[in-house]
What we know:
The protein is an alpha/beta fold and 326 residues long. It has 2 domains: 6-35 and 128-181 and 286-325, FAD/NAD(P)-binding domain (3-Layer(bba) Sandwich), CATH 3.50.50.60; 46-111 and 183-282, Alpha-Beta Complex (Polyamine Oxidase, Chain A, domain 2), CATH 3.90.660.10. It has helices at 14-25, 65-77, 113-119, 162-169, 175-180, 236-241, 247-262, 310-325, and strands at residues 6-10, 29-33, 46-48, 51-53, 80-82, 87-91, 94-97, 105-107, 123-125, 130-136, 139-144, 149-153, 155-158, 184-194, 204-207, 212-217, 229-234, 269-282, 292-293, 298-300. The strands form 5 sheets. Strands 7-6-15-16-17-14-18 form a 7-stranded mixed β-sheet. Helix 1 runs parallel beside helix 3 (113-119) and helix 1 (14-25) runs parallel beside helix 8 (310-325).
Amino acid sequence: MTGDSSVGIIGGGLAGLAAARTLGKLGHRAVVFDKGRGPGGRSASRRAAPFAFDHGAQYFTARDPDFRRSLEKWLENGVVSRWDGRLVSLRAGRSRPVRGGTERFVGVPQMNALAKFLASDVEVHCRTRVGSIEHATTGWKLFGEDGGELGEFARLVIAMPPAQAAALIGDQSPLGRRAAAIRMRPCWAVLLGLAEPYGVAFDGAFCEASALSWVCRDSSKPGRPSAEAWVLHASAEWTEEHLDEPPEIIADTLPRELERLTGMPLPRVLNRDAHHWRFAQPDSEREAGVPVDRDRGLVLAGDAYSGGRIEGAYLSGVAAARSLVG
Ligand SMILES: Cc1cc2nc3c(=O)[nH]c(=O)nc-3n(C[C@H](O)[C@H](O)[C@H](O)COP(=O)(O)OP(=O)(O)OC[C@H]3O[C@@H](n4cnc5c(N)ncnc54)[C@H](O)[C@@H]3O)c2cc1C
């Protein structure tokens, strides 16, 4: 697997997939490797019948004109839909409606639908963790966890959280140090399937003065099963203080915090899981510019370099591809 225009991409989240599609349009062969069972990374969904959960990204907004143009196509294709959930900001005993004209969008039938759609005309190798990379005069060699060679590419896009990117790059490029300097914050997520609807008058809440930062009635999103599904996200601070707690404790503690905030007991819980996101969101809003090492044909992509959200991740993949071959 080599050739002057071949590009290897490590990471099949929205940044890596956007990079692959952009490279394809520019006439380059792009091959994506992802360690997950499917593409999508943190834009993730999980089913536990009859419930469906988006336990990573909850929804996305679209501000950039290029991103909005792509969004129009996804809406036409039905892989994305607008979500008009009733949102509030929530403090113990008090909730205030969130006003303002922000449009929010979700993948349909699950959040990972967009990644699946973007991956549909891209060569993606899932369940393939890249264990090491090696820069040679001809380009970059990629190796699996077992040391077996995965391929050799003229250029390389690394589209994964910065700490993981830094570990792969090491001292083979100055970009290793640049990635190592970016801090990502963790998030505990709890997935709750309920026997009946929770009687609160909102579908999503930004939580204040709480261990929780966000809670969402996932079953209120378009195209989801009707079974009452909630996702609770802990704040980064609280997660950092409870990193080593067993998932069962987290899955018990955060629902109780939701009850405290709303003053309403939850209906019978039929499904209860906790998921730990080690690298959930970047600490700072924006890293300036695309990190590119032209001498070695290496570029970094991902939300950490472009605003920390789905829109930023996607745009960073597009920008990374263009800067590598443009
Ligand atoms: C809890 C949570 C809530 C969020 N809420 C929102 C929200 O409401 N709105 C919003 O816009 N954004 C939200 N985000 C952020 C959003 O999910 C990310 O900005 C976006 O998905 C990042 O995409 P990415 O491609 O940069 O990275 P990722 O999605 O992390 O993709 C990186 C990929 O690299 C792969 N990988 C890592 N190491 C290797 C390896 N060695 N070999 C092969 N593959 C590897 C991973 O499997 C992964 O698929 C949230 C994130 C989390 C975790």
